[in-house]
Amino acid sequence: MQLFDEDNLSPVRRRTLERLTHAALKLYQENKFPSPEEITREAEYAKVTLRSYFSTHSEFVEYVVKRVIGAFEKPKMTADPEENIARLLSWGYGELFSHEALMRDAMRIAQHRWQTRQEEGSHEGESFLKKSNRREALAEALAPLESQLPPEKVQKLIMLMSVLYGTEALTVLKDTFGMEQEEIVELTTWGAKLMLHQALQEET
Amino acid sequence: MQLFDEDNLSPVRRRTLERLTHAALKLYQENKFPSPEEITREAEYAKVTLRSYFSTHSEFVEYVVKRVIGAFEKPKMTADPEENIARLLSWGYGELFSHEALMRDAMRIAQHRWQTRQEEGSHEGESFLKKSNRREALAEALAPLESQLPPEKVQKLIMLMSVLYGTEALTVLKDTFGMEQEEIVELTTWGAKLMLHQALQEET
């Protein structure tokens, strides 16, 4: 649980949280998956400090991801869905690569949370379902398709593009095929276009 | 490191390894990510036993994955790439879902290994690049395309299908969109067909 209200944080508590966040980001930039101890040490606080903000380490990592994603300047969307997807993939993989360790750690932690939810017997998965920036960005990118395709097909394309666009795809293409950022952008853009073209063609 | 030779294992050591493997699988079937301690306890061995077979826990988990995948009976491939992909996705997601916790833990551990490689400064990623059953299965499924598409396009399609087919895609579609196994098979099969059709069409 996040143990504070973002909008009602004393200046001192806010500064402390900023320093913890920056310490974590600095360690992630060194391609580490920092432990709570490493983060507080880097920020020069006592070990317990983090625990007064977040009840678990996963929540802190999620908070850092949210902060990083919140600071992203998303590309402008146009009336052309194909152009939108190309912009989103090129920009998005750039951001993912520049925060690769953080994104991989978040993916790792998401699995751990899945496991914890199994133990708790909660199956609704609500905490996951609400935090998808990727889904929202893709829905906006594909919105112009709504005049050309039935809504359920647009939705299916959003889901397929979600698989092509993200840390999961990055790890498959980089770790299994040794691909670099540029190649991943080119490949996934090509795949997205194939799907868009064919879906539109099947409709007419 | 794997500290034994699979083909030259004494009957006693082999039996012990079998019991450890089965204990791990039993715990994974209960949707746990078992620790080395939990596995040895389940198998009724001393804590040190595992360490005489594998120098790290990740390697044991990889061994278990390899054993599970090795026992899979892959579907027969035909001369029709579209049919092959449909068979592979339907069968493969069935296997992934029936070993969901193991596959998620393996994905989690793969991230941890990425991080360790960064620390060691080794960038070749060799340990990942060699262990892709998925790539081989997809190459076989798409082999009939070789008479219709240039080899680099077949290769690109294999890579795109690798993103649609695996634990990574499973977690995106299940955790972000709340999809079930059948829906995931249907969606990814549709997406794969869109790409195949359009790639072939662009060629003619």
Structure commentary:
Two copies of one chain form a homodimer. With 204 residues, the first copy, chain A, is mainly α. The first copy, chain A, folds into two domains: 11-68; 75-203, no CATH class. Helices cover 70% and strands 0% of the residues of chain A. Chain A is built from ten helices and no strands. In chain A, helix 8 packs antiparallel against helix 10. Chains A and B meet through helix 5, helix 8, helix 9 and helix 10 of A and helix 5, helix 8, helix 9 and helix 10 of B.
State which percent range the strand residues of chain A make up: under 5%
Q: Describe the oligomeric state of these chains in a short phrase.
A: homodimer
Low-pLDDT segments, ≥5 res of chain A: none
Nearest-integer average pLDDT of chain A: 92
Q: Report how far apart the termini of chain A are.
A: 50 Å
The secondary-structure class of chain A comes to mainly alpha
User: What count of domains describes the coordinates of chain A?
Assistant: 2
Largest interface: A-B, 51 and 50 residues
Q: Rg of chain A, please?
A: 19 Å
Shape descriptor of chain A: elongated
Helix content of chain A: 55-70%
Number of helices of chain A: 10
Order of helices and strands of chain A: HHHHHHHHHH
Please sum up the structure shown.
2 copies of one chain form a homodimer. Chain A has 204 residues and is an all-alpha fold.
